[in-house]
Design brief:
Blueprint lengths: L1 E2 L3 H10 L4 E7 L4 H16 L4 E6 L4 H6 L7 E6 L3 E7 L5 H10 L15 H9 L31 H10 L2
Parallel strand pairs: 1-3, 2-3
Antiparallel strand pairs: 2-4, 4-5
Protein name: Thioredoxin domain-containing protein
Keywords: Redox-active center
Pfam families: Thioredoxin
C-alpha cells in the first residue's frame, strides 16, 4: 500500500493509474476499527496485485479529508480511469463483506478507454480553495458549442409550399 503524502500526491496517483482500479483507504492510526481492519485490507491488497491501494492518514491530512467529505473512518473510495469515482463507503471489521463485494463488482480487468478522470471537478476546486493544502488547480475552460449559421436556422414563418397547401385546404 502506498501512503498519500499530500493532495497533489493523491491527484497525481489517481491520474497516473490509468485504467487500473485504485482503492483509497482513509484511516486514523488511533482508530480501533481502523487498526482491526488494517490486516484484512493488507491481505486483500496482496491477493489483488493489479489493484492499486492508497492510504490517507486522516490525522495528518484532516484538511484534505474534510474537503473530500470524508467524515467517518474507516472510509474507502474506489476509482478507475475515465469513470472517476466508482463508489464510496465506510466499513468495519464486521462489515468487511461490503469491501469484498465492491472489489468483486469493480474487478481489475475492466477498462474505460478514455483519459483518466481522477477526482471530481467539485473536489478539485474544494482542495484548491483550501490554502492549507498548497494545491493548485486550474479548471479546464469550457469550450462553447458553435451555433449554426443564420441561414441554417429555420424560422417558424417559413413554410414549404406543400405545407402552405395543406393549411389552405384545411381552412375551407
Amino acid at each position: 500500500m502506498k501512503e498519500v503524502t499530500s493532495a497533489q500526491d493523491l491527484v497525481d496517483s489517481l491520474l497516473n493509474a490509468g485504467d487500473q482500479l485504485v482503492i483509497v483507504d482513509f484511516f486514523s492510526p488511533g482508530c480501533g476499527g481502523c487498526k482491526a481492519l488494517h490486516p484484512k485490507i493488507c491481505q486483500l491488497a496482496e491477493m489483488n496485485p493489479h489493484v492499486q491501494f492508497l492510504q490517507v492518514n486522516y490525522e495528518e491530512h484532516k484538511s484534505m479529508c474534510y474537503n473530500l467529505n470524508v467524515h467517518v473512518l474507516t472510509f474507502f473510495r474506489f476509482y478507475r480511469g475515465a469513470q472517476g469515482r466508482l463508489c464510496s463507503f465506510s466499513c468495519t471489521n464486521a462489515t468487511i463483506k461490503k469491501f469484498k463485494d465492491a472489489l468483486a463488482k469493480h474487478k481489475p480487468d475492466r477498462c474505460s478507454l478514455a483519459p483518466t478522470k481522477g477526482l471530481d471537478e467539485k473536489e478539485l476546486l474544494s482542495l484548491a480553495a483550501n490554502k492549507d493544502l498548497f494545491f493548485n488547480y486550474t479548471p479546464n475552460p469550457v469550450q462553447p458549442t458553435p451555433l449554426p449559421a443564420a441561414e441554417e436556422i429555420p424560422t417558424s414563418f417559413e413554410l414549404k409550399e406543400s405545407e402552405e397547401k395543406t393549411l389552405v385546404g384545411a381552412g375551407r
